Amino acid sequence: MDNVVKKVSDAQVMGDLDASVAYAKASGKADTSRLGITGFCWGGRTVWMYAAHNPGLKAAVAWYGPLDRSYYPGDKSVLDVVKDLKAPVLGLYGGADQGIPVETVNKMRDALRAAKKPGDLIVYPDTPHGFNADYRGATARRRRKTVGSACDPGSPCTEWSDASVIAPYVLDIAVGEAMSLEPSCSRCVVRGVVSLERGCSDALT
Fold it and tell me: Which of 64, 109, 126, 194 has most Cβ atoms within 10 angstroms of its Cβ?
């Protein structure tokens, strides 16, 4: 994974996501005026960065995205761009995540409040990194049953999206975890970038 993400700057990723939104809009199958984004780990950090980049974003859900570091030399951290956030972000984190200490999550929560930005961070006690990935072992699978998968009705992700009045059109940047999204759920993953809620038959190809 490092051989991929450390070779890609935030500027390139933001451009790729903007292009994905433009493509979805041009297809006529997506109402990008109700745009949301979700992502996991590296993708979770990208969620925060895109929320600081795109003024058209309506809501975002970041699953255990690093907050105090970047991957590409010269890029900023999430904590560096709090004041630039343009959409409400829900951050979902594990209390036993060895790479993202609870202290860092609390620092981010304080930064959101100080900047008067809408958002929230939830910490699941005794929960490791990658808890939505069912291939990460028994502990992660148990926590996934509690939290719900990314697309489950009533999961923090969908509840936040609904509360923020976003459409069923969600950018999916679940790099390395795309298969953790249920194939039968209403959001059909278009590999790499865009998810649509009109069913797989209407998905962009």
Answer: 64
Query: How many domains does the chain fold into?
Result: 1
- Catalytic positions are 41, 97, 129
What pTM value is reported for the model? 0.75
Please give the Cα distance from 196 to 202 (Å, whole number): 8
**CA 99/CA 159 separation, integer angstroms:** 26
Does some domain include residue 178?
yes
Three-class secondary structure of residue 96 per DSSP? coil
CA torsion angle 172 174 178 183 (round to 10): -40
Domain of 156 in residue numbering reads as: 2-199
Residues of the chain with pLDDT under 70: 1-2, 134-205
Q: Establish if 204 belongs to a structural domain.
A: no
Query: CA-to-CA distance for 168 and 190, rounded, in angstroms?
Result: 13
Please report, for the domain that includes residue 72, its CATH number.
3.40.50.1820
DSSP output for 116-175: T--EEEEEETT--TTTT-TTS-HHHHHHHHHH--TT-TTSHHHHHHHHTT--SEEEEE-T
> What percentage of the chain has pLDDT greater than the value 70?
64
What the block records as the tokens of 193 is 């970038």
